[in-house]
Design a protein that fits this description.
CATH class: Alpha Beta
Distance between the termini: 24 Å
Subcellular location: Cytoplasm
Order of helices and strands: EHEEHEH
Keywords: Cytoplasm, Phosphotransferase system
CATH superfamily: HPr-like
InterPro entries: HPr, HPr-like, HPr-like_sf, PTS_HPr_His_P_site, PTS_HPr_Ser_P_site
Strand content: 25-35%
Number of strands: 4
Number of domains: 1
Domain HPr: 1-88
Main location: cytoplasm
Helix content: 25-40%
C-alpha cells in the first residue's frame, strides 16, 4: 500500500469535470485506489464517492493505492491534481 498527500490546486476543486478526469486517470490502473479527506475515505474510481467528499480548491487530500501498479497510480494521480487538471496533464 502506498499513499501521498496533495493539495488540490484548481479553484473549483474535485467537482464534476475535474472529478471525471480524475476517475478516468484512476481507471487506467489495476490497483485499488482511494481518496481520503479528513476522516472519510472513498473509492477514487467512483464519481459519487468523490463528489460526496465536497473537495474544494486548497483542500488537502490523501491518495492511497494498493496493488501491482500502486506506485504509478499514486504518482499519476498526484501529478494530475498538482497540474490543476490542465489539458496537457491528461
Amino acid at each position: 500500500m502506498l499513499q501521498n498527500t496533495v493539495v488540490v490546486q484548481n479553484q473549483v476543486g474535485l467537482h464534476a469535470r475535474p472529478a471525471t478526469f480524475f476517475i478516468q486517470k484512476a481507471n487506467e490502473f489495476k490497483s485499488s485506489i482511494w481518496i481520503e479527506k479528513e476522516d472519510r475515505r472513498v473509492n477514487a474510481k467512483s464519481l459519487l464517492g468523490i463528489l460526496s467528499l465536497g473537495i474544494v480548491g486548497g483542500t488537502t487530500i490523501k491518495i492511497i493505492a494498493d496493488g501491482a501498479d500502486e506506485e504509478e497510480a499514486v504518482k499519476g494521480l498526484v501529478d494530475l491534481v498538482d497540474s490543476g487538471f490542465a489539458e496537457d496533464a491528461r
